[in-house]
TrEMBL record:
InterPro entries, sorted: Exonuc_VII_L, Exonuc_VII_lsu_C, OB-fold_nuc-bd_dom
Organism placement in taxonomy: Bacteria, Pseudomonadati, Pseudomonadota, Betaproteobacteria, Rhodocyclales
Protein name as annotated: Exodeoxyribonuclease 7 large subunit
NCBIfam families assigned to the protein according to its UniProt record, in alphabetical order: xseA (TIGR00237)
Catalyzed reaction equations: Exonucleolytic cleavage in either 5'- to 3'- or 3'- to 5'-direction to yield nucleoside 5'-phosphates
Domain of life: Bacteria
PANTHER family membership: EXODEOXYRIBONUCLEASE 7 LARGE SUBUNIT (PTHR30008:SF0)
Subcellular location: Cytoplasm
Chief location: cytoplasm
GO cellular component, one term: cytoplasm
Organism per entry: Thauera chlorobenzoica
One Pfam family in the UniProt entry: Exonuc_VII_L
Family (UniProt): Belongs to the XseA family.
EC number(s) per entry: 3.1.11.6
CDD domains (alphabetical): ExoVII_LU_OBF
Length: 461
């Protein structure tokens, strides 16, 4: 179905009448809209959850009041805000007595809050408090477990998003206060569905690579935002990763009024990312002032040292001898030493010659008479050969006698004299007739041969 053509404006047939209508400025339009809105909506109570809360230096408070489906900007002027009996925070559920109006300068619809009262804690804030209380009961936030920051870190690790303004603030602050200090970025998103897991992994990576990258301190930084924007920093696994990190951790998350679980788990909380960089570089920054104070003292000490050395040089100059005189003196000392050395060498050679002559005399006196020793050795050799011949003959005679005796006692010799050896069927030697019975087979060994016999009778006597 085709749409019908648009109807002409009421005054399309009379252009003169249209041109004569008044033309409103934007300011007048916004003023009329504000008056219409304020007259249509009287002062009323509106309930919702606080988000994006900001306290201006003037004392005014700006925030967003939201529910599950919508949100509206709110402004509470200083004269009203200073009368509040409590301190509004992001995530708190409140009821606001407000006037619906329009901020003419921007054309923004907003509520001017006259009064504010708590209406319970928002869902996110309630979850934050539950997690905080549970981890605190475990001792995860125990101050005794917090590690001191190194005064002069060699390098600093930073966990943040590469596009974050907080990272630029940190780098600018470090360059201004400690330009030599190296910074290593461990990138991770600071907002979004997977931000908490990515932040946890970045913290774990920084701790694992600390020795390799040379970092001694870790900064966890992010700019300000609502409680929803900062919710990644309220993750339990991130808090445990911060406590397990081998490096001291400084958190600089949001503005001074923002507070997260990560701030409680860190070793030190800074109100802003810039403050975190200032705390990390505090030692180097302070030492610059200390060096500036030590500079005049060092100058005075060097001056005194130079004066002392100048005086020593003057005294040494007075004791200084002309090189020609020193060479002549050393030449005389050398000639004297040569004479002493020559005399000592001559005396030593004389003593050595005398000892050598005495030793030769003693050697001649102790020289043996070889002819007499040779005759004695020959005589002893002759005696030794004779003794050996005699002993061998005696041993030979004795051996022959023992062999004859042994031959006389041999079993074969006994059998040759008419004796026999009788054995039972089991091969045992019989020594008594009672050892066998009638009819038993007996083996009789003779000097030559063997007889197998049967016992027909036996006598024991």
């Amino acid at each position: 179905m085709n749409p019908s053509p648009a109807a002409p404006p009421p005054d399309a047939e009379n252009p003169a009448r249209t041109l004569s209508a008044p033309v409103l400025s934007v300011s007048e339009l916004n003023r009329l809209a504000r008056e219409a809105l304020e007259s249509a909506l009287p002062l009323l109570w509106v309930g919702g959850e606080i988000s994006n809360l900001t306290r201006a230096a003037s004392g005014h408070v700006y925030f967003t009041l939201k529910d599950a489906n919508a949100q509206v900007r709110c402004a509470m002027w200083r004269n009203r805000a200073q009368l509040l009996p409590f301190r509004p925070e992001n995530g708190m559920r409140v009821e606001a007595r407000a006037l619906a109006t329009l901020y003419e300068a921007r054309g923004d619809y907003q509520l001017n809050v006259e009064a504010l009262r708590p209406a319970g804690i928002g869902a996110l804030f309630e979850a934050f408090n539950r997690l905080k209380n549970r981890l605190a009961a475990e001792g995860l936030f125990d101050p005794a477990g917090r590690r001191p920051l190194p005064r002069f870190p060699r390098a600093i690790g930073i966990v943040s998003s590469p596009q974050a303004a907080a990272l630029r603030d940190v780098l600018v602050t470090l360059h201004r206060r400690a330009p030599h200090l190296a910074a290593v970025l461990y990138p991770a998103p600071v907002q979004g569905a997977d931000a908490a897991a990515r932040l946890r992994d970045a913290v774990a990576t920084a701790g694992r690579r600390a020795r390799q990258d040379g970092i001694e301190l870790l900064l966890l930084v992010r700019g300000g935002g609502s409680i929803e924007d900062l919710w990644a920093f309220n993750d339990e696994s991130l808090a445990r990763a911060l406590r397990a990190c081998p490096l001291p951790v400084v958190s600089g998350i949001g503005h001074e009024t923002d507070f997260t679980i990560a701030d409680l788990a860190a070793d030190l909380r800074a109100p802003t990312p810039t403050s975190a960089a200032e705390l990390a570089s505090a030692g180097w920054h302070a030492v610059r002032a200390e060096l500036a104070a030590l500079e005049p003292r060092l100058g005075r000490a060097i001056g005194r040292r130079l004066e002392t050395l100048a005086q020593r040089l003057d005294r040494a100059t007075l004791r200084l001898i002309h090189p020609r005189q020193r060479l002549e003196r050393e030449r005389e000392r050398l000639a004297l030493a040569a004479r002493h050395l020559r005399a000592a060498l001559e005396r030593r050679l004389e003593r050595a010659a005398l000892r050598c002559a005495r030793a030769g005399t003693r050697l001649d006196a102790a020289r043996p008479e070889l002819a007499s020793y040779r005759q004695r050795v020959d005589a002893l050799g002759l005696r030794l050969r004779q003794a050996m011949h005699t002993q061998a003959e005696l041993r030979r005679v004795r051996l022959a006698a023992l062999a004859a005796h042994l031959q006389h006692l041999a079993p074969e010799a006994v059998l040759a004299r008419g004796y026999a050896i009788a054995r039972d069927p089991h091969g045992r030697v019989l020594r008594s007739a009672a050892e066998v019975e009638n009819g038993a087979t007996v083996s009789v060994q003779l000097a030559r041969g063997r007889l197998d016999t049967s016992v027909i009778g036996h006598h024991d006597d």
